[in-house]
Model the fold of this input.
Amino acid sequence: MPEPIVIRPARSDEYDEVGRVWMESWVSTGLGEHSDTLLADLRARIRREIADGWSLFVADDRGTIAAMLALHVPKLYLDMLFVAPGYQGRSVGRQLLAFARTQMPDEMHLRCVRENEKAWRWYEREGFVYEREEIEPSNGFMMKYYRWKRQRPAG
Done:
């Protein structure tokens, strides 16, 4: 039986690899293209976002980073969940989401690009409720905003 994927905090020496996974996952949506500029921007953003309060986690498959998860726990915000293309469809995203719910057990918010239908439909299946759409001024994408709240038993 294969070893399970381990979700753990990302180490600073892994940030460049996390940026590569992020870019490859983003490119797999069809909404972006591989480029050295994009990769450099994502790698710089990781460091900037961590300085601003991100908690960054990776899904570690025996030393290979299979996915990244960025949370801003004080804001109850799931900021980024990206799974490397070779790991998509293998429940890695579901494992990361379950982990996020251990960090924010009662409520969390997220947003995703409207054109990334695969992602927002998945979040809806996972219990997130659509709230609104807004243009993200930094990139021009229309973003769909979602919220998940723990369901309390009636009574």
The two ends are 43 Å apart (CA to CA). The domain at 6-149 is CATH 3.40.630.30 (Aminopeptidase). The chain has a mean pLDDT of 93.
